[in-house]
Write a structure and sequence with these properties.
mainly beta; 3-stranded antiparallel β-sheet; 1 helix; 3 strands
């Protein structure tokens, strides 16, 4: 899923008054032939667009598979 695909998916589900800041940090990347995986952590902040106040922060781990 590319950057624009993520943006489109999030814009259709997130209220218009929120600003999102999403960051993925890769800790491991392995490529074998035409297959790959990426493992790491993520952090997302949801803030009020008008005031800039951070309303929620979510952190976790992720794994992405690529072909």
């Amino acid at each position: 899923m590319g950057k624009q695909s993520w943006r489109s998916a999030l814009e259709s589900t997130i209220p218009q008054n929120l600003a999102l800041n999403l960051r993925f940090d890769t800790q491991e990347l392995e490529v074998v032939g035409d297959l790959a995986y990426e493992r790491g952590t993520y952090r997302m902040e949801a803030a009020d667009k008008e005031s800039g106040t951070v309303l929620q922060t979510v952190t976790g781990r992720h794994i992405h598979m690529f072909k």
